[in-house]
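Tokens help. Our protein:
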Amino acid sequence: MIGDAANFAPYLMLFLLVLALLWAGIRVLREYERGVIFTLGRFSGVRGPGLILLIPVVQQMQRVDLRTVVMDVPSQDVISRDNVSVKVNAVVYFRVVDADRSIIEVDDYMAATSQLAQTTLRSVLGKHDLDEMLAERDKLNRDIQEILDTQTDAWGIKVGNVEIKHVDIDESMVRAIARQAEAERNRRGRIIDAEGELQAAEKLVQAARTLAAVPEAMQLRYLSTLQGIAGERNSTVVFPVPLELLRGLGSLVSAAQPGAAGAGRRAAQPDA
């Protein structure tokens, strides 16, 4: 019995060694994970998801997560094109689309993408005025996203979206913007008033031409105005004077002035 056990011991040790090696070479990758395999230090393929068998010591595997990563870009001090200092932070959405390049081409794709996002944010916003930062965020988001996507393509990264979250402005600049907005509203109000006066003047000119073409229309307008005044229950009495009468009186006065002037000159001359 002792001899049989001694003969069986090497096989047991070999079996345990093989079992340990198999256990060390088994990997399980989830649906959203991929494994980048290196054989003796050389890239030999991408595997997963599911059960992966590796040759211990000879092969190594790096896990890569393919899910979308939400990265918060820290607040950056930016000087706009019109020399206004602001603090801007943003959020970047990206994911790995090429697992092997994300491991081989860059040391740490997370840190690299974060640093690139910070420098791109400062560079792009520094080319725009403060008003553009506040009013054209969608355009700025697209510009930053396109630049990041182009730069990270060599790392196997796809930048899906970039959103600027906050643009923090100094309190004095906030008051200046409020004064500018108030002045702009006042300017628009004056322009609207002037346009209204212009339109009213044009309509009055058209009405005057229409009434001048038909003199009887003016008399009807007088009567309509009197009807409106009479319905207000006031003590005002209005006597309309026809314009023809005023024109006739004006003609008589004009005709009398030359005669009176001639008589005055004759009276002023001395007797011969």
Q: What stands out?
A: The helical segments are 2-25, 99-104, 109-125, 130-135, 137-152, 171-213, 215-230, 243-268. DSSP finds eight helices and eight strands in the chain. The chain has a mean pLDDT of 82. The longest strand covers residues 157-169.
